[in-house]
Specification:
heterodimer, A: 392 residues, alpha+beta, Butyryl-CoA Dehydrogenase, subunit A, domain 2, Butyryl-CoA Dehydrogenase, subunit A, domain 3, 4-stranded mixed sheet, 4-stranded antiparallel sheet, 12 helices, B: 388 residues, Butyryl-Coa Dehydrogenase, subunit A, domain 1, Acyl-CoA dehydrogenase (chain B), FAD (chain B), AcylCo_DH/oxidase_C (chain B), flavoprotein (chain B)
Chain lengths: 392, 388
């Protein structure tokens, strides 16, 4: 680290960047590329990779200084930002980092996540998609599911089985999948909201060069853990510009005729829960900034899912007759994930996914119980058996 | 002792040192067996307070003067440090009058101001005397009841106050009284024993019982007086007390969670630790998450109470912390009893002391519902208009 950055010096750098790159006279992409090259994309990343190698919380200073300038539309590239990027940074070669991170951050290249399969959900490590080495290439066959953004993605982070003869956690390898390669077929999967945010992805004889492997052969489970931990932080811990509590409170304030004592008591309780969750996130970020990441992160997504579901359910009920209506059931394939958009009915239905996507609430409770509280795991029959011999 | 981390929700090094000192003292002098023995005495009608422990905490560690400014002989610390002491006292359900004397009575005197208050604060902060605020502990900081005590033209107070905490060990009783002469409200200081009788009441909380205090023409010194709905200092004392009580509730909840987790790792049924069953693990994971939230809420209340420039934010922080933490402590104590099985129902296991403290804490200084009503106002979330 060549410079010890602080709030003042980071703010100064952001201001001088802005002076040199007037967003009014630069095209959007040019501006974003220049911002990446100036180390102002994600300041905690290393220099030369969009960052300044400094404290993560100083990013807030950059965002404040660059407020109102063109952004990279984080809702459209959330998987890239939240999951692919930290994994590429942690396990990628220098060449992979240089190739992938810049277009990922600017939004030129959208990423998707090829983890879950029809037969491997919570038990991800049992996945069956095969990757077989042929010279300098890997040939991939299998089916992935619940893949958000697959229809817009240039790249996918892929976990595949490279050795079926060892226990399931050990025979996995992590790849970057070229979504334009022959044999990749993406089909929309319609959700309870009426939209198809996610997809099924069929991989048939897809050939990936070995240069797209991330981490060692057989080390895919460990690499995937990095992705999953970051996913939960991304879903649960990000400071929100707008919150579900804020949306529901606005409805409450604007519709006094709908208020009842029962709803009032429940709203106040949820509002307090939301405020406590916000403070928990503030405290968590302080811990991160102080260099002592606490285990609290594992719980954020769990709390966030429950709160979103209860608040959005309350809003539909509050709306009475308007709650009986639904804005639009048209089968669409949106480019961005949006928990708070559209009308109350959509928000209610979309929130149901919050306790499933990125690790179900049940799995998260196991993680907290075992890794934070140190409680023993359930007796397991699948740990020391070769994957190919597991009962099916 | 304000530093640049005073709004942080983390603990400063100074706070961690204070915690270590209090925890060492409590481990030495207030082990579960000691607390149980005192609870036993309390069940028989005696006061459970441990005078020796209080002396060590008040004088040697300086807890009595934490909130008192240095010019009055105190430590000039803030609500942040007092909160850390309360976390530790909650963890051990220690029977000491810290909340009643060093927080409620002390804060009332500081807010009331004046020479009488200054003199009393000096004696309080040295640990030489202990005081109690003779107001029902069930009073919320939002809705005053008129004082039950009157101040006569002869300077004597008469009347009865129920539900008072810490009165049995108080040398000085601070009582809000209605002045017969002009209808003003006065905060009066009465020496215990001089016309003031304290009768312990069989109480739900064995380690912090309530008492009835009867003033029979007791000679009183007027600390301050004013007209309005509250006697001087009382509202401030109750609000600060409510905000800091969240830290005690956090400590109670932490002990219950830690103790239960340790127990279910050890206790075996069906040839496995009961803590390996998902039905048990998931309950404890949810409880852990509640405790994590309680810590953030309690720290936020303490940090804002410590900053005199942020009064309005402090009011919101106190209401949010109290609306949240009371239920967390009760839930933790109830889970502690349940997940210990039969032993959790016994008198010999200390779980019941925490359950009783948690349930009483839910009521004192405003119920969660009282604090949610305050949130409705502070967060602009008004209720329905009256039907008629």
């Amino acid at each position: 680290m060549s410079v010890a950055w602080d709030e003042a010096s980071i703010a100064e750098r952001a201001r001088s960047f802005l002076a040199e790159h007037d967003p009014a006279r630069t095209d959007r992409l040019g501006f974003l590329r220049a911002r990446f090259d100036a180390g102002l994309a994600w300041v905690h990343f290393p220099e030369g990779l969009g960052g300044l190698g400094t404290r993560r919380d100083l990013q807030a200073v950059v965002e404040r200084e660059l407020k109102g300038t063109p952004d990279n539309d984080p809702g459209r590239i959330g998987i890239g930002l939240g999951m692919a990027a930290p994994t590429v940074l942690a396990f990628g070669t220098d060449e992979q980092r240089r190739r992938f991170l810049r277009p990922l951050w600017t939004g030129e290249e959208v990423w998707c996540q090829l983890f879950s399969e029809p037969g491997a959900g919570s038990d991800l490590a049992t996945l069956a998609t095969r990757a077989v080495r042929e010279g300098d290439e890997w040939v991939v066959d299998g089916q992935k599911v619940w893949t958000s953004s697959a229809h817009t993605a240039r790249w996918g982070i892929l976990v595949a089985r490279t050795d079926p003869d060892v226990p399931k956690h050990r025979g996995l390898t992590y790849f970057v999948c070229d979504m334009r390669a022959p044999g990749v077929e993406v089909r929309p999967l319609r959700q309870i909201t009426g939209e198809a945010e996610f997809n099924e992805v069929f991989l048939t004889g897809v050939r990936l060069p070995d240069s797209l492997r991330l981490g060692e052969v057989g080390d895919g489970w460990r690499v995937a853990q990095t992705t999953l931990m970051n996913e939960r932080v991304a879903i649960g811990g990000a400071p929100a510009r707008r919150s579900m509590a804020g949306v529901v409170a606005d409805t409450w304030r604007s519709r006094p005729e709908l208020r009842t004592h029962d709803l009032h008591q429940r709203l106040l309780k949820l509002w307090v829960d939301a405020e406590v969750l916000r403070l928990t996130a503030v405290r968590l970020r302080e811990q991160l900034a102080a260099g002592h990441p606490g285990p609290e992160g594992s719980g954020m997504k769990l709390a966030f899912a429950r709160l979103h579901q209860e608040l959005s359910g309350l809003e539909v009920e509050l709306l009475r007759e308007d709650g009986l209506a639904y804005d639009d059931w048209t089968f669409r394939r949106p480019e961005a994930v949006d928990f708070l958009g559209r009308e109350a009915g959509y928000r209610y239905l979309r929130a149901k996914g919050n306790s499933i996507e990125g690790g179900t609430s049940e799995i998260l409770r196991n993680i907290i119980a075992e890794r934070v509280l140190g409680l023993p795991s359930e007796p397991r029959a699948d740990k020391d058996v070769a994957w190919k011999d597991l009962p099916r | 002792m304000t530093d640049d981390r005073s709004t942080s929700l983390l603990y400063t090094e100074v706070e961690q040192e204070l915690r270590a000192a209090v925890r060492d003292l409590l481990a030495d002098k207030s082990a579960p067996a000691d607390v149980l023995a005192r609870a036993e005495a309390a069940a028989g009608g005696a006061a459970p307070y441990d005078a020796e422990l209080w002396k060590a905490l008040a004088r040697d560690i300086g807890a009595a003067g934490l909130l008192v400014p240095e010019e009055l002989g105190g430590a000039g610390a803030s609500a942040r440090e007092a909160a850390v002491v309360l976390e530790e006292l909650g963890r051990s359900v220690a029977a000491v009058p810290f909340l009643s004397s060093a927080v409620l009575a002390t804060r009332a005197l500081m807010a009331a101001g004046g020479d009488v208050a200054a003199g009393l604060l000096e004696r309080l902060s040295s640990g030489e005397v202990t005081a109690a605020l003779a107001v029902s502990a069930a009073t919320s900081p939002y809705g005053p009841k008129g004082p039950a005590v009157t101040l006569g033209a002869d300077g004597r107070v008469s009347g009865t106050v129920t539900g008072v905490i810490g009165a049995e060990v108080a040398d000085v009783l601070l009582v809000p009284a209605l002045a017969a002469s002009d209808g003003s409200l006065a905060l009066c200081a009465v020496s215990a024993g001089e016309g003031a009788g304290v009768a312990a009441v069989p109480s739900l909380d064995l380690t912090r019982p309530v008492a009835t205090v009867t003033f029979a023409s007791a000679p009183a010194g007027v600390v301050a007086r004013r007209t309005g709905t509250w006697a001087p200092g009382v509202r401030e004392a109750l609000a600060t007390g409510a905000g800091l009580l969240a830290s005690e509730q956090l400590g109670v909840a932490e002990w219950c969670l830690d103790t239960t987790v340790a127990y279910v790792k050890e206790r075996r049924q069906f040839a496995r630790p009961v803590g390996s069953f998902q039905a048990v693990k998931h309950r404890l994971a949810d409880l852990w998450l509640e405790v994590v939230g309680a810590r953030a809420a309690a720290r936020n209340a303490a940090a804002l109470l410590a900053d005199p420039r942020r009064g309005e934010e402090a009011a919101s922080a106190v209401a949010v912390a109290q609306a949240y933490c009371g239920a967390v402590a009760v839930h933790a104590a109830e889970e502690c009893v349940q997940l210990h099985g039969g032993i959790g129902m016994t008198w010999e296991h200390p779980a019941h002391l925490y359950l009783k403290r948690a349930k009483a804490d839910q009521i004192i200084l405003g119920t969660p519902g009282d604090h949610r009503e305050a949130v409705a106002v502070l967060a602009d979330l008004p209720g329905p208009a009256p039907v008629l």
